[in-house]
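Q: Study each token:
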Amino acid sequence: MIRACYVTVFEQSQEELEKYLYDLFDDLGAVYDKYESTPLNPSNNQYELTAYITQNFEFQLTVHWHSSERSYILVTFDVEMAVPVEPFQLEKALVIPAENYFQKATLVYNSYGDERSKRLFPLVMNIENALREFIISIMLKKYGYSWEFTIDKYIEDAESNSEIYQINDDWKDKVKYFKSLKEEAVKSQKNDYPKYNPLFMHWLYYVNLKDLVDTIEIVDFLEKCKVDELQGRNKPVLVSQLTFASVVGKEERDTITNKIRKLNLLRNKLMHGRYLTAENEELIKSICEELKNLIVQSGHINNFCQFHGK
């Protein structure tokens, strides 16, 4: 059974509320019982009306509310359906017609959308953490345990020698942002451990998915500036001289960063409780599979999927 819930407010009398509900039921072609006095449900002590509606799909609508002497009555629309229906389809079938009588109802729960979110959350979380492992592993292999101090030094050099390095304003802003990002992440890490979390986690676990893109790009950019300067700008910087591009290939590195940016938009919707569409789900699966092939299956990090039976 698929369930959904919407809430809105009614600012007139209960008598007007009941009249508008019956009018809405009629607009929807609903089958319902009409009462002279709306019955009170003893289980929740709320007034309640139920209607059975057939649009492109069938659903049961139960509307309930508490009696209120105040000017605002909270009205809840509970929906039950036997077949899966995309949340936006239910929006068209119920919420939009209801706007003829009520303030726009707010979706607060949809079990079909909720189940999709539950499927996608571990997939996105695993890829996000795989990217963190990818960055940490690659940097450790290139610079050893002091890799973070090396990058800090690169940033310091870039800020001090932006003209010598020929860094444009766009990259100046990116370098400045990354420096601030890292400082805030380290600050959060120190505030968290061990006071609130006895498990020490790397500062990359305190940044967002988009910030992982910035990390990959900033590292290769700063290295390019440094190598170019050391070579006296007399010859081109080779892919083999850039940490991430040398490991996965320049095109593959750019594919990884572009895919992460696309994934980040959907990731934020998911993490903030916004329901995704079937197209969104397929895109997330496609991106995660491509990223897995680029960084996991290629052997750059451990195959985390095997720990989840995949």
Notes: Residues 306-310 have pLDDT under 50 and may be disordered.
